[in-house]
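go over this chain:
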Amino acid sequence: MIKRGIKTFSIVLFLISGPTALFAVPPGQVVTWEGGGQGKVTFEGDEHAEKGYKCDSCHPSLFQMKKGASRITMDSLNKGRFCGACHDGKVAFSTSNPQKCHECHKAKKKYRIHNDKHHD
């Protein structure tokens, strides 16, 4: 009887936590990494899913499932590793395109507050 209760509890626990555990980036969530002086790097799972990619498109062939398991550098990206496998200028914008840095690197926005009166 106790074994049956433990088994039932385990199944319920899996059903509650299982769906979110199956996704590297749960729907609506964003993963961020420190991006050095260029600003944080963001990965939006929804944006890639909308293009037809699934978790197994990149995991574990290009990326390990655990965040931080790989040392990702711009040099490695530009050599076709990690994101650079698709972001090569053919499949998706190139990681070496200086006009596209903002697509991944989200620098802190600086807002300037204007207290000056408008002069005509």
In short: The helical segments are 2-21, 45-50, 74-78, 101-104.
